[in-house]
Design brief:
The chain folds into 2 domains: 116 residues, no CATH class; 114 residues, Rossmann fold (3-Layer(aba) Sandwich), CATH 3.40.50. It is 48% helix and 11% strand. α7 crosses α9. The protein starts with 14 loop residues before the first strand and ends in a 15-residue tail after the last helix.
Length: 264
């Protein structure tokens, strides 16, 4: 797959470290492969550091700052040598970009390093549009889709128009906007574990707006949100497929959707 014009911004020789994320690694590796394909096609020298680990967000959100700091330091050590750090997740990106500097602000050895890493960390689709200058992808997908704006991506990182811009360049995609696309899905990381009844009430409202949009496929940029919504849709007997946007943009949306068995 090649990107259509315009030519991406100065990508020659720029090294990108791919932050895979825990959920992609454990539950949806195809999203990682899609991210690799998109970044390499954009002309970047891509590497996936083997010593990367969790971004520390679950610990941070639970008040466990000691473990969050330890994980943040490991991420910094693994990625600080790259020109850019890219993750197919708004929540993990938000953790690194928005919270690492304050988390490590009181440690002189780490404070500046945290700020430097935060400043070059981007969510995948935002990176392709805002940094690489990509306006079109040469992918194909036939069907109606609706898009969920995740809380971290939208509110922490300002990701709203970028995914829609790239989806509009894919022949065969018919985007049907759902009502309140920017309303939380109820996942919230550990929130859904601590407050399952509230989380279920929120996702029930969300899946209704998804269904009412009349699309055959639900897309988003965060695996946590996608798994939460896919689980509820499946429990409700819905036939709506759920996919990460990277899979559609990379022309890798022909396998089982999220929540479906592979048949192997």
């Amino acid at each position: 797959m090649n990107f259509a014009s315009p030519t991406p911004k100065d990508t020659k020789g720029k090294r990108v470290g791919l932050f895979v994320t825990c959920l992609v690694d454990l539950f949806r590796p195809t999203v990682g492969f899609a991210a690799v394909k998109l970044l390499e096609d954009a002309g970047f020298e891509l590497e996936v550091p083997r010593d990367q680990t969790c971004c520390g967000q679950p610990a941070y959100n639970s008040g466990d700052k000691d473990d969050a700091k330890a994980l943040a330091k490991q991420v910094i050590k693994a990625f600080e040598g790259y020109d850019y750090i890219v993750a197919p997740s708004g929540s993990c990106t938000g953790m690194i970009r928005k919270h690492y500097p304050s988390l490590l602000a009181d440690e002189p050895e780490w404070a500046d390093r945290a700020v430097a890493v935060a400043g070059k960390t981007y969510e995948l689709v935002s990176f392709l549009v805002d940094i690489a200058g990509i306006e079109k992808v040469s992918s194909h997908f036939t069907g109606t889709v609706t898009y969920h704006d995740s809380c971290s991506g939208l509110r922490e990182l300002g990701i709203k128009d970028q995914p829609r811009k790239l989806l509009a360049s894919v022949p065969g995609v018919d985007l049907k906007e759902m009502k309140d696309s920017d309303v939380c899905c109820g996942f919230g990381g550990t929130f859904s574990v601590k407050y399952p009844d509230i989380s279920n009430a929120i996702v029930s409202k969300k899946t209704k707006t998804i269904t009412d949009a009349g699309a055959g496929t639900l897309l988003a940029g965060d695996m946590g949100c996608l798994m939460n919504m896919a689980g509820k849709l499946k429990r409700d007997g819905s036939a709506i497929q759920v996919r990460h946007i990277a899979e559609v943009l990379a022309d890798m949306a022909d396998g089982p959707a999220i929540g479906e068995k592979s048949g192997r």
